[in-house]
Amino acid sequence: MTPSFRIGLGVDSHAFEKNPSARKLMLGGVHFTGERALEGDSDADVILHALFNAIHSALGDRGLGFYFSKKDMAGELADSKNMLARAIQTLEKSPYHIANVSITLECLTPRIEPKNGDIRKRVAGLLNIDVSCVGLTAGTGDHLTAFANGEGIYCQVMVLLQTR
């Protein structure tokens, strides 16, 4: 018997680049102008990476690192939207659809709230769900972790899948 609901948790984190480059800071497919980029083999979009992991976790599957090598992420998959598209293809073969997504970020910088709506809309569009089904919260962490001290960004994503 197929369960009516499945929940997945995905996590990702990246440090900020030590030396500025031409790379862009991307969060949820949204460009943050004038901010340091995150280090990574791809665009290091922690939201889309954690979302990939959450979808696969909910399906009882493995995470991003199992499916993609560093070489893969430097090529076509450098844009994390292409990685997420693969997770969506896997989801579409299952008896489930996304009912809800909850995103939580911890970072000292950048300020997330000014782009909260843009990120929610972009994620909803990528998943083909209503923006009201995507929540996004962010906190600074009160200087308790490396992320809270401005060294990078930490992201958790929870996904609720429901049978079609």
Automatic annotation (TrEMBL):
Keyword set, alphabetical order: Isoprene biosynthesis, Lyase, Metal-binding
EC assignment: 4.6.1.12
Domain of life: Archaea
InterPro entries the UniProt entry points to: MECDP_synthase, MECDP_synthase_CS, MECDP_synthase_sf
GO biological process: terpenoid biosynthetic process
Involved pathway(s): Isoprenoid biosynthesis; isopentenyl diphosphate biosynthesis via DXP pathway; isopentenyl diphosphate from 1-deoxy-D-xylulose 5-phosphate: step 4/6
Requisite cofactors: a divalent metal cation
GO molecular function terms attached to this record: 2-C-methyl-D-erythritol 2,4-cyclodiphosphate synthase activity; metal ion binding
Catalytic activity: 4-CDP-2-C-methyl-D-erythritol 2-phosphate = 2-C-methyl-D-erythritol 2,4-cyclic diphosphate + CMP
Boundaries of every 2-C-methyl-D-erythritol 2,4-cyclodiphosphate synthase domain copy: 5-161
Protein name: 2-C-methyl-D-erythritol 2,4-cyclodiphosphate synthase
Organism (species): Candidatus Iainarchaeum sp
